[in-house]
Give the backbone structure.
Amino acid sequence: MSKISEILVGWGNALKEKLGLLDNTISEEAKRRMLICDGCEVRNLWMCDSDKLGKDKLTGEMKSGCGCVIFPKATSPDSKCPLNKW
């Protein structure tokens, strides 16, 4: 899936979540992802800050955030955390 498709799916799913229409499986996974993001070193309010660095969970390499709005990204099943936390 292309990044544009991931973004569109994420924003569509975020809207569905707010309206109570999101599939329960996707909703539960988004909640799990958001809990992980809550304590992340690259989080800046509601963004995955591209100006901040954090340690990649798999490689240990220092990487920047992706710049995405976190909640829609968390609701996009094909999206991945830039630090491989989910």
Q: What stands out?
A: Helices lie at 3-18, 24-38, 70-74. The mean pLDDT is 97. The chain is about 40% helix and 10% strand.
